[in-house]
Amino acid sequence: MNQSPTIRVSLTFLTAEEGGRTTSTADSPLYRPHLVVGDPHQRVPLHDDQGMCSENYLGVQFMGSGRELLLGVAYEVQLRLVFHPSLDYSQLVVGSTFTVREAGRVVGSGVVLSTDFDGPTDPDDELADAPST
User: What mean pLDDT is reported for the chain?
Assistant: First the structure.
């Protein structure tokens, strides 16, 4: 069976006072939110002129063994990119920031620390590595 790629992230769940969750969650495969790459300080979803969501929701699955993730505390966690390769996760490169979404609600934010998949390649890089004739 082909396993989906994973990323390692640092993330913090918002407290209820910040507009986030009212209870903690668990670092468990049962938790499957979405990530939206962009400003980690964003607190509401973005919509176009017709009121349609204009953001790219990337489905992920937490991979931990169930440890409690308290609100307002930074954690490093491993996430599985569950819809790869059908969904383009190429925005999730090292250093990219994101918000964590439960449906349209922003419940946290974070930054990508590492990935184990190949993102898009720059054709100029391939030419630079090609042997000269």
Answer: 89
